[in-house]
Structure prediction request, 202 residues.
Amino acid sequence: MICKYITGGLFIFFLLVLLYLLFHIWLEGKREQRMPHEIAGEELPKELQEAAIRPLKLLNGYYEKRDPEQAGACIDETMLSDNMRILGTNPDEIFYGREGAKWLLQGDWKHWGQLTLDADQTALCRAGSALYYVLRGKIKLDYVRFRIPIRITGILEEKDGLWYISKMQFVNNLNSNYLVVAWLPALAAFISLLFFGLSYIF
Prediction:
């Protein structure tokens, strides 16, 4: 009987620790949406800055429409498809060239949530003849109405007088330290529950 109380109590304790960590991930995500951390860029001429963020504004417009049939037009207007490299938020999301970009865009618009980008607040830094960019955004997931802050980084390159995206990396802007730590109480809760079940059997 004592074993049941101990293992049951441990399960509840570790479950509460796990919920506490998950709550903090959510709370910091909400804070980042309300008061995002400053991302410093270089002071660039206003004309250059406006020209450079053109493809990012267009990309945001296409993400608002979420029309898979317009993926090709989006790529033509915003990306250098021959040099395109995209890293998504999942480990297996690595896309190359026009077909990779098309696969990503159509998949996002069919199955992902509503992405909104704050292109006007893009941080830009020179990287040789190219520009490194960082912009913030948020995703509203359809099925739970949960909003996740996101950052997109990458490279902009100029071609025929216009700037285009040539590299992109999507990053969920959440505190992953809590996720790294969370597996410990999750494992401990599972083991406690297992022993709690065994105490009933024996």
